[in-house]
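@channel sequence for tomorrow's demo:
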Amino acid sequence: MNTPENYKNHPCFNAEARHTNARVHLPVAPKCNIQCNYCNRKYDCVNESRPGVTSSVLSPYQAVEYLKALDKRIDNLSVVGIAGPGDPFANPEETLETMRLVKAEFPDKIFCLSTNGLNLKPYIAEIAELGVSHVTLTINAIDPDITAKVYAWVRHDKKIYRGREGAAFIIERQLECIPLLKEHGITVKINSIIIPGINDHHLEEVAKKTKELGADIINCIPVIPTKETPFESLDEPSKTMIFRVRTLVKDHLPVMTHCARCRADAAGLLGQDFTEAFGMLQEFATLPLRPTDNRPHVAVATYEGLLVNMHLGEAKSLYIYKQTPNGYHFIEERQTPASGSGDFRWINLAKTLGDCRALLVGGVGPNPLNILQHSGIRVVQMTGMIDDGLEAVFNNQPIKSVKKADAFKCGDSCRGNAQGCA
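structure tokens (generated this afternoon):
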């Protein structure tokens, strides 16, 4: 339930709080159910400071472990949010599970979500019960002809809607959520992207309509022209245009003017992100996707049984270890599935390693990495002594020096010829 104290302490809703109250976005929602013509959700570029970008996607378990570590490093970490990199309600299971785990560990934190609203309605009562007090809805227009220029498509129940039909579909679902959120005591912020020549003349109407429905505040954000999008050639809105738009909308709603256009993995004070969070995020992304109480072993790709030094794609067998009171003991050498079957090779390997909480390798391609980690196996890319890797894994310590084997360059063309993973 929202309270005046919550509103006062949320840096996105209260400009004064940005100097004292930190926030973190947990990137647990990779899928999106719309395609905006200004959005390109690329990962792994720390220099990208825009919504929809993250360096890693975390599972709910990883996210809460990351949050627990971050809470010890950042003073007054008051707000926990989920803002992508896709949409929280295109990933409802991951979003809700994260919120449940966060609430159990941090019942006093402020919880917020940022969404396009397309699939929000079925979950409003549940997020209110979980303690979400602030929701941001991105609404770029309430006229279907204008909205159709903003989105390439929207997807609902496995059906794709395009053009004016898709625009009308998403507008209806966005607007009906506002009074429902207010019925549950949730503060509603409207995010509207200022897109020159598309909706800059229309955002006053967005503010007027959403105010009628109960919205509390609006944030008019200049579009960031992004490569490989339909809007990449647009000019950014001028200061004059931004001032004009905000002046017109403030006749209807209070205007947020201190937005930092945060990444989906932002952490720290607004506009002053905690620089160490990027490295921490990388470390916690290597933890198991789920707790591993029933996985007592660790697999290792090694040439000679001393070093972690073999690329997974060329490993015909893996060494299996367990922890004992007297140190780490070799159990057996386990054969890996033969190459040539594409992703089925890694699906079968995941079954073969069903008793293993982690796999230590000198290098691995993106497909096996994804398949194995989503099977609950922590994949650690490193070079060094086997015992050092085992020590970190069995004691649940993030491995700080993660390194791919330099001899291998993996890509989509890789077909398992001892230079990759297929």
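heads up for whoever presents: Residues 4-284 form a domain with the TIM Barrel fold (CATH 3.20.20.70).
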